[in-house]
Structure formats: C-alpha cells, structure tokens
Amino acid sequence: MLRISIDKIDSLFAAISEKQALYIPADRADGAAEYKKYEAGMKLSEKLNTVRSAKDFFFPQTENLVEFKMEGKKIEVKDIRQESEDFVIFGVRACDARSFTILDKVYLVEPVDSFYKNRRDHGTVVTMACTRPSETCFCQAFGIDPTAPEGDCAVWSDGSYYYFKANTEKGQAFVDSVSSLLEDGDTAELDKTVAKTKEIMGRLPLAKLSTENFGGDKLNEYFNSDKWGELSESCLGCGTCTFVCPTCQCYDIKDFKTSDGIRRFRCWDSCMYSDFTKMAHGNPRLTQLERFRQRFMHKLVYFPANNNGEFGCVGCGRCLSKCPISMNIVKVMKALEVK
Amino acid sequence: MNKNLKEQVLRSSGVNVLKCMRCGKCSGTCPSYDEMEYHPHQFVYMVEKGDIETLMNSKSIYKCLTCFACVDRCPRNVEPAKVVEAVRLAAVRKQGNNHMTPADLPDMLDEDLPQQAIVTAFRKYIK
Amino acid sequence: MQRIGVFVCHCGTNIAATVDVKAVAEALGHEPGVVVSQDYQYMCSESGQNLVKNAIKEHNLTGVVICSCSPRMHENTFRKAAAAAGLNPYLVEIANIREQCSWIHKDIATATEKAVILGRAAVAKVHLNAPLIAGESPVAKRALVIGGGIAGIQTALDIAEAGFDVDIVEKNPTIGGKMAQIDKTFPTLDCAACILTPKMVEASQNEKIHIHSFSEVTDVKGFVGNFTVTIKKKARFVDETKCTGCGLCTEKCPMKKVPNEFNMGLDNRTAIYIPFAQAVPKVATIDPNYCMMLKNGKCGVCSKVCSVGAIDYKQEDRFIEEKYGAIVVATGFNPIKLDKYDEFAYNQSPDVVTSLELERLMNAAGPNGGTLLRPSDKTHPHKIVFVQCVGSRCDDSKGKPYCSKICCMYTAKHAMLIREKYPDTEVYVFYIDVRTPGKNFDEFYRRAVEQYNVHYIKGMVGKVTPQSNGKLHVQASDLLANEQLHIDADMVVLAAAIEPDKTARPLATMLTTQMDTNDFFTEAHPKLRPVESATAGIFLSGACQGPKDIPETVAQASAAAAKAIGLLCKNSITCNPCVAHSDELMCNGCSSCEKVCPYGAITYIDKEFRMPDRTTKVRRVASVNPAVCQGCGACTVACPSGAMDLNGFSNSQIMAEVDAICK
Amino acid sequence: MQVNENKEFEPLIVAFCCNWCSYAGADLSGTNRLNYPTNVKIIRVPCSCRVNPMFILRAFQRGADGVILCGCHPGDCHYTSGNYFTRRRMTLLFSMLDFLGIERDRTRVEWVSAAEGAKFAATMNEFTEAVKKLGPNRRLEDLRCRKQ
Amino acid sequence: MQETMINRAKQLLADGTVTRVIGWKRGEFAYDITPAVFESAEELESDFVFDDFTSANVSKYLVKESAKEGKVLVFLKPCDTYSLNQLTKEHRVNRDNIYVIGIPGGPKLDIEKIKAKGITGILSVRNENYTLKIETIYGEETMPFSEAILDKCASCKSKKHVTYDELIGEDGDVLDSNRFDMVEKLENMTAQERYDFWREQLSKCIRCNACRNVCPACTCEKCVFDNPNSGVENKAASDSFEENMFHIIRAFHVAGRCTDCGECSRVCPQNIPLHLLNRKFIKDINELYGAYQAGEDTTSKAPLTNYTFDDCEASIVHERGVE
C-alpha cells in the first residue's frame, strides 16, 4: 500500500497546496479544531473532529445567489455564479465523509443545485480513518466503519506512516499527483491499529445503539408519541445542533440591500428557529415541540422514507457535545424507541 | 505664589478650597481665634490664592487645636482644619527648614517630657 | 405602489444661488416611487402651494417631499396645503436644503450633490410614512388645586373667575397656609392677615370654589383633561355642615395643654380647636391624639355644649372621587428642622427661635398678644442676634444646597420692626451675603441699616451658648474687621432654610411629575414653561417649585391659573399623533419603557393572547396613552424587543434615511 | 466614501440632531452663513433619546465614517429627561465600540442649543477633520455596502 | 446533597405545596445533564441529579413554567437567584407561583476543559479530594479539580442567595471576585490589539444563538434579530459587520440587566468569551454610575433607565482609554 512517513507529511501538504487550495483540520488557540487553509508550518490536528463539520466546503453557511443592480427605476439581474477553484479537504472523518452522500441526495438530484454541484465537482475529499473514537461516537449505528472511511481517497495512520487508498477516479488522480512522495510498504502495523480500533469501537458506550426500530415506515409509531413534550421541554430553540451537524441541509433565502442594489443570498436555517419554513400564510410548526420533532423525525423517519432507508444522521456526536442543555438524537432515540 | 506648594497642600488635605463661600462660620466658631494672626477663613482664602509661604511662616498654624469645630460646622464641607494640618505638613517637609538636629536632642531631654514625644518629634522634624 | 411628488424650492436665490435646483429636481425624479418632480421660485407662496395641491390631485400622490427651508419654518404650511388637497398631512416630508445646505456651502457642485442626497433621504422616509390622525380627548371642566396657602387660594380664585369649578384640597383644618402665620409683609410692612383673610373669605364664598379642608389626595389616575382623583376627607369629628364656628366648645374643652401648631408650639390650645380666629372654614376640629372622649370615652363636654349638635365622635375618614381636567400643585414649604444645628443651641434654649416663631411672637394674635417677650422668662429682650443662612447654601447632609431666597428680606423686616417698636433693643444681623433683588428690596434693606441702625455684620455665628444668667453667649466672626465677636444676647433668631412640604414627594409619584433632588417640582422648561410640569395638565404654583416670596408666589399662582384655564377652555385636546405605540405581540411587559417615560404615558394591561396551540395566554403588555405621550422616543430605545416604536419617526423610517444618506 | 489616489479622502458624517435644540442650532448656523463641510448630513429626530444604537451601527454599516449625535444641553431637554438617558446610553455604547477596537474619534455626542449656531458649525468642522484624520471606516463597515 | 434535595422535593410534592419540580436530569454520560421538569416522586428518584456537572442555570425555564397552573419548585444556585430576581423585576415570571430552594453553588466542572487535555472516551468522572479520577475507554486519567472548573465559577461573584423560600445548606456572601481582570487586560491593550482580539473571537461565531437563547435576560417574545421588521434581522452573518453588530446589540440590550451568570460563554460551541462583552458594560456601569448588580433586588432602578444630573459625558470614553 502507498504510504508516507508521518514526519514527511509537511512535504506532502506543501506539494498539494502548490497546485490547489488545501484545507486541513488545525488547532485553534482555544484548543478546538477547525478546517483552515493550509499554510507552511501548519500542523494537522490530533483532535478527533472539528467543531464545524466539513459540509461547509460544499454548502457554506452563507452563499450569494444573484444580484439585482438598481439605478433609479431600472433593475438589472446579474448572474454572479463563477466556476469554483479546485481544492482538497484533507483529514475528513468517516462520519463527515458519509454526510456528503446524504447531502448529494438532496442537492444533486433534480433540480440540481448548481452552487453545490460546482463545489462538489471541484473538491477532492481525502478522509482519515479514526483511531481514537470518543464516547460520543455512534457512526456504527448508521453502518459507517470509521476504520474504512469513504471519500475520494482514504488515509490511515498507524502512528508511523500515513497509508493512501483511492476510492474514486478523483481520488486516484489525487494519489497520482503526489505519488512521487509516496512509497510502497507493507500494512502489518496498520492492520494491528485497525484491529485495535475495531475492538475499541465495540466497547464504546453507544456501541449498542441501533436504528432497527427507526426508518421510513415508522411515521405513525413516532409522530404522535407522547415523549416529544418531555424531550422538547428543555430545548432552548437555538441552532447549535443544526449548525454543527454535517447533514443538516436547510437554508433560507434572503435579500440584502447594498448601496446600489439587492444581493440575494442563502444562509443556513434551523428547524429549531421559530420562523423556520414560515410562509405567507403562516407557520406550519408553531410550537417548539413541533420544531424539535421535525429535526429528529426528519433524520430518523422522513429522510429514510425518501432515500431508500438511508438515515439523515451519521453519528458524528457533535450535537451530543455541543447542545447547551445536552439534549440530542441519542437521548431522543432511546426515549422514543418502540421495540 | 508658589504653585507647587499650593498643589501639595490641596493634595495632602484633600480639600477643595473653591467650595468656600466666605461665610466665616469657621472663624466664628474657632476657640483659638484670638491667638491667631491668620484666622481659619483667611487660611482657606490664602491657600486659594496660593499664599502658602506666609502661612507656613506664621505661628498661627501651630495655634490650631485641631478641635475640628470648623470642620463640623462648615456649611460647605470645606474642612479648614485639614488645610491647617496640610500647611503644617508642608512646613515639616520643607528641606533645610527642619527644626531639629540630633545635636539638639540632649538639651531637650526633660524629665517631665515623655520620651515618646521626643522620639515622635525627632522622627517628624528631621530629614 | 407609492406615488411621490418632489417639489424643489428656489427660495428666490437663497437656495438657487448655490444649489442647482433643476438638477436636484431632475435627479430626484429618477428615484423609485417618484412620479413628479418640479422646481419653483417660492414653494411657500400661494402659487407654490397651489402647485403642490394640484400635483397631489392630478397625480393622485401618496407622499410629498418638499426640498426647501427648515421644517421648523414651513412644515406646517405644507402639511396644511396637503390636507387641503386631500392628502394626509403626515405624508409630507421636508428636505432642508436651505439652512443645512445652500446657506452653508459655497461650491455649487458639492452643494447640489448634498441637496440631492438630502432629498433622497426624505423620499426614502416618505415611502414609509403612514397617514396619522391626531386623536382628541375630552376635557373635564373642573380644576383641582392641591394646597390651600396663598398660592392655592390665588390660583383657585383666578380659575373660578374664569367660570370653572375648582376644588381646593388642604391638609390642615383651615386654608391660609404659611402666610396666615406671618405678621407683616416686606417691603411694604402691611399686615399679612389684613391682605390674606379677605382672599380666604372670597374663596370660601365663591360658588365655583369648593374647599376640602383637612383632606388629602390619595390617588390620581388618568391624564391631561381627564384625571380621576381620590380625596380623603379626614375625620374631624365635627359635622362641617352644622358647626357654626361659635367657639364655645373650644372654651369649655377641659384638655387645654395641646401644643398650638399655629403658634409654632409657643403656647397651647384645646383638644377641640379652631386654628385661628379667621380660619376658613371656621369649623372646629377634634384632635384625636388629645381628646379624652376619643381616647378613653370619658368626657363629651363639647358634645354637651354644642347647641347645633355638630359633634360626632363616630365620624370616619371619607373618600370622594372627582374628575378634573387640570391639576395645580401648590403644596408650599416648611422651615427645616434645626435639631442638627447644636451650635446654635436651638434645642437648648427657648430664647433661640426660628424666624417663623418670631413672627408668632410679634403677632398681635400670637402667644404674647403682640408684645415681643423672651419665651423663657417673658422679659423684654434688649439685644437680639439674627443668624442668616441657617441650613441654606449648605453642602453637607444637614442642610440644603440652595439659597432659601426669602430670609434676607424677612430678617431686614424683623430687624426693622423690632427697632421701630423697641428702640432700646440692639439688633445684630450676621450675614454671608445680603441678597435683595426685587422691587424696592434693596431700599428696604438700606432703610434697616441707615434709618433703623441695625448692625449688619458680615460673618457667621459659630456658636451660641446659653449662660446661667439667662443670656445667650454668641461667638461670631466679623470678617471685615477681621475679629471674633462675643455678644451676650437676650434672643437669637435663626433664619432656617425652607424646604418643600413632605407631602410633595408622594404626590409627585401619584402625579408622575418630576422632582429635583431637593424635592422641588421640576418645571417643564426652566425658562419658557416655568409654571407647567413636564406632565401635561399638571401645573405648578408657588413654593413647591422653588423658594419664593409672596409677590412671586402670587404671580406664579395666577400664571398657573392662566395655563389651567387655557386647558379647561378647550372642549377637547388635539393630541400630537407622532406618539409611541407598542406592538403587543412583541411586548414583554418588562417595564423598561415605563421607567424612562417622563410623562407616565405608559401603563400595563394584562391581555389575553391566542397561542399557536390554540390555548390562550394572559400576558402583561405596555399600552401608551396617546393623549399623554409627547413623542420623545425614549421608550423606543429602552425597549429591547423593539416592540415600542414612534409614529412619524419610526425605526424603519430613520434607518431608511440613514441608508439613503450613506448610499 | 471612496479614497481616490489623487483626491483627498472625504469622510461621510451622519449627524443625528434633536428637533428642539440641535436641529434648530444647525438651522441657525445656516441662517448666520457659518460654513461647515458638505460631508455632514443631518437626520432629524424628536429627541436625542430617540437614537437607537442600531441606527449608529447601521450608519457605519452603510458607509458612514463618523456618526455624531447632538441634543439639548443637559437640563434643557424639551422632554426634560431624554438627553440624560442619551448620555448614559451613548457613553456605554461608545465605550463598547472602543472595547471592540473601533476608533473612538468616529463617534461623538455634543450638546448644541438652538442658540449655538456657531458651536454647531465649529463642532462639525472639528469632527469632520478628526474623522478625516482617521481615514475610511474599515473596522465597522460592511463590505457588501462598499461603493465600487 | 442530591438525596436531601430529592427528599425535600418529594415532601413538597406530596403535601401539595408544589405540583412540579425543575431540576436536572442525568444523561448518557457523566456530564451531559439536561434541565428537566419532574412531576412525580418516581421520576425524581430515578432521574434527578445534582453533582459537579449540574451547572445549567434553570431560572429561564420559569418564564414558561411559572405561567402554568400550579406552583413550581425550583432549585437555584446563588448565581441563578440573581437571574430569577431580574426576571421577577421585569415581570417575566410569576414569583408567587414559584417555590425557590436555594442550594449551594459551584464550582462546577467544565467537560470541555477535561476534553481539552486530550482526555476522551470518558465513562465516568469522580472527584476524590479535589483530584478528578476520570475513567475512560483508554484507561484511567487524573487531573486537578481546579483545572477543570467552569470559567464562570472561577470568577464567581457571589455565594449569596438573593431570593429563596428556603435554603438547603448555609447561605454564603457576596465575594470579592476577579471577574473584571480580563476586561481590564483588554482595556489596557491598544485599539488595534483589541480589534484583532475581537475579530479572531467573533469570526468564529456561527450564529447558533445559543448565547441568546440560554440567556435569562434574553426573554423577548420576539428578538430583534428574528424580526424582519426590525431592520437588523439576520440568520447568519454574511459579513464581519454582522458578527460585530449581533454581539454589540445583544450586549447592549442586556446592559444593566445582565446578572453575569456566565451561561453565554458556557454554551458557546465556539468558545467565544462572550461574557467579556457583558462584563465590560457591568464594569463601566459600576465605575461611571456607581456599583450596580442586576438581580440583587427587584426594585432598584436599572442604570439605563436612570440618570443623575451630573453623569459623565460620553467623551469620557476618549479621555480615559489608552491608545
């Protein structure tokens, strides 16, 4: 398998970033990790995951859609779409990698979202297998193997080397572009690391979490469950869970008045917000209970119903650690589950 | 007028002499009035004018009993006695004008005088 | 869709000389929503206004922008013109391109550019203007005067004279106030009673004036033109309608050792009493603290001697409620308590008295029948020391920071009267400054010095010590002679500072009027609206607003009456429609707005809302009384949710202006 | 406002003036023909206390380089107490802007009475100069509103 | 302590004094505790928890809960009682419908600080003599208790309960805290340094509104930032200006009302020290208008709805700072 010694990773990053923009998870001053554009000397974070997910690269929090120029009483519509530059995201975890599959099911089906597609076409996702999962991890519940991440190219580490394997054509192109820096090597050490990780995965507190009682056909079981009241009672209605979530895909479109016209942009929305999907006639979900239910029903029932049983959650655990009042999808599943 | 001295007196007393409305109640209330060359209300006014040296050289400042009657009764909270004390301090601090040298001490020893007083005076009046 | 007309005025050459008015009209014509944009020589002229009126009709305009002089000049002119053409007057906005553009700039290019921007801001604002209709609220044709001293009496007489009913609420058993206690008045030296009592009688006999003596205001609700006031008529245990004021009961009452407040406690009265001979109403009152019948049921003498059966030991406090259009506050003043001034020995010697006590000592109806005698031994004083500014102009906790204003003059009066009546008495006046601004005031003071030989000494008394021989040792400074004086006086008279009556502050709270830190009522404007409070419909009369002598008090009393009459004359009040309003759906009921409202225009109501889940919820929300609100907007910023907004200057309007200017 | 290489930087100043004192003071400086720069654009408000911190931020967002708030002198407020609230609100707001590193000379409160036409003009001249020295507002601008 | 609280709550439920109890409910792990309403002895018995991680200020829930029928019991730490007082003062809660039991305050633990040490796979956290024994899937770890306490507890302003119906344990005192140290440090920087500091911090903001929604002073029926008519509404910052504006206006709206409970910084998923903005206002208010502690009582006039004739002018901002 192609590999590179861990202490040479800087040269690999340098080589990639020469050709295209490279983003890697790096530690911030406050200790948390976030994706940053690679600059010489930047260190790959050892944190399990970033606070914000990798979906930002394809579906940024705000994005300009169109501009209207106004002069006096004349209005001119300006298409501001531009072809994206090629870029690489390095070090995406298996959970986030799966989230792109989910987002693709929303944005790449007809009508295709040209903004999303543009970025998706130009971005290469290089994933990184996990070795030190956290208590909040439950990707296994959604059939994700963190030791064998998806993405254009997967990378493993055994502590001494990074191993590379292309999953797609784009991934192969990526590997080819840096092949001069890679060498072939045996995977005996790596196999041990993977086996160890798999063993740890089995011991995680949420290892037994199962989705078998959820899915597209469970609408009637759960929609009117009397648990929703109790579960949503403490919800503050903030958007933390949705904004750190790698699969949340809802957005709102707004107009901003600039000095000489209007800029129409979209920005993430949250089903936890009181004006979520508010329309001219009013709001279909008037209480926090309904909005809270929407988020979980969407991930556990509605999304699989429309996507061949695929769930809208990847078990990254971000909402578990970031919710101000520690209410999350795991607690909801456990409370709700009817066996 | 010596600006520095005035500053020093104002600062060490913490008194705002501009609050004085010249009512003279301090002088009306002062038990040492007749002993003084400059009376409490004049004191305040002289400090305002910056005429501190005259005060420092006057015996009046040592005639003040610091009974604080003027402080208590001043309708404007000017606190004349604090100004008096500040001028005394200014006099004490004036270099070259110290009232004692170690050589003076033996002559001052007096069996009626508590030693404490001598030590205190010595500390206070020597450089 | 908005249809806005823009009208650019040349103002002769005032604007046109530095602003290219044609270019401004042209540029603004391209703004969204503008359907007509014209310029004209004099827009405020008859023909200019016609231009606007015709355009409104012809183009069916929904908004008008006039680029002209300051709105302070002609906003009303153009609003009237718009109204005449059938457009709501509040759909007119003015862009000030004269005072704030053409007159201050010289370069035509930049001045024109700025004029366009100012015009654009006005267009942006007028897009968001809403038609406003000035509300009206009826005026109750009755006034309330709180306080029955000379200020209250004068105000009541003037209002009654204009034909309106007026009620006086006086907390004491009789009206008359402080002036009734005064012996003579400066600078004419006429007898206070001789000029006051006829007014008291006039007030009592005027059909329009209703005196509620021995009464207090306990609650005030409502707003200008429409106050509802609760008055407590305290039990006096005598039926006012029956009592003839014959005074027999007061002669027979066995409880004769009650300190007489009318005489400043210098002598005694009975438990049932009439404060003084000319009291109005002349009705007896029983003092329940001393009456043995009320205290332990043993006596009943007054009831037995009363030939008309007016005594009613079972009488209770009564509350009456009345509606008023205007309220005049005339709560007056009191001398401050002197307990904290130990140095003047006020509490130690009966011969140290306040000036008001001296008034009683010298008054023919006073404790000594008008002969000045020392309270201690009833001997004639030969040396009297007056001390000025006792508690006035003080920067400490004991006194008041202000000048009490009246003391210089009454002390000159006292000194003069004493010297006149008792030429063998020496009089000393210790002063800090002698303040005599007033008609014939300084002449009066000079007479005291020159003609009556009163010793005026610049300096303050430091200490007064009662001696065993009955004299008062006065230690003082003479600042001009630079010496300390020691005088053995027979009497010392202290010119105590005056302060607002204690009832003023709770009253101010009820009236939602403002007070300064000294508890004087604050006038609406210190120069231009001196007799109105900032709360509409509340007027200020006399010393409750600040220290005043009698002539000033009477002048202000009549002025307050004039203001009140001006209000009462109206059948209804047109309200300024540019007032705040609260969006109840967004209001939190947090009370922030109420706390910054200077007018008390905001109240809270519990309102029922339909909740999303079809339940109902009762929530506390703010409600603005448009008749009281003056439209300052303080509440709009205090409101964190933005529920409070201001008509005519709404958040969105101001932000639209900002946007247009910064474009 | 834009900076042009060969043109001096001309700041945009937004002045909020209370109707009763400062707006009248501005009128007076006009009546007396006392010049101040065209950079200053006045917005009339009933009282200085009507000015919401949001308006001030809005002005900066939209491209103002300086914002000045004028009201009646303390004690003279037409509504008796409005400017006292203004004073506290603006002191705190300006302190916060300073805390965030926004140049303090971009904001000011000045009390101008209806009689102080000369003071109004002098204040505006002075303030415009002070803002000119700071250069364009970059720390509190919205790039979307920057003029091309 | 937990036992005492549960027993007292059960008593009050049983004798009908209250119908519901607001407290904390245990979670999946040692630290993920959720505020909850308990209605029965059984629920209390099985789920009620009070330990080193029960840091959430539950006073805000009283806005909703005290409007319902029946009295509600709430356990409040000293800092939480300030919040309740402020809510009472602003008529946002019905105090008569609340039964407050004052309980001892922190210091409480910050799981983020434990995780920042690289400790992961956390199964349990035990406090043994102020050393934390942390059991993880990767073995046991230890760290000093003092290094893991919440920032808000490290600068605790008061151990005193300002309102309660009964107390469990002793009442404490108002403390001399060091809470303004960081504000002062920033004040002493140059404007450029402060600007850079705040840009770095505020650019992290994802506008999740957690700070606002957790804040007991932010109980508006509709926030200006959610109201399209307010002129400042936005859902996400499209420009750094909007990041600044949101936090300036938010801090301004709670100026003189913020009780400095520290929840905003605790819940921020991006670790932005938002409390510094609030503390800046508190510090300014204390220095310029006299010491004022929001929530200390329910009657005093708030600094921004009050004034004195001789307040300092706004130019004081120019006069005092460093450049």
From TrEMBL, chain D:
GO terms for molecular function: iron-sulfur cluster binding; metal ion binding; oxidoreductase activity. It holds the Pfam family FlpD. It comes from the Bacteria. This is Coenzyme F420-reducing hydrogenase delta subunit. The keyword DNA repair does not apply. The keyword Oxidoreductase applies. It comes from Ruminococcus flavefaciens. Residues 13-135 form the F420-non-reducing hydrogenase iron-sulfur subunit D domain. Keywords: Iron, Iron-sulfur, Metal-binding, Oxidoreductase.
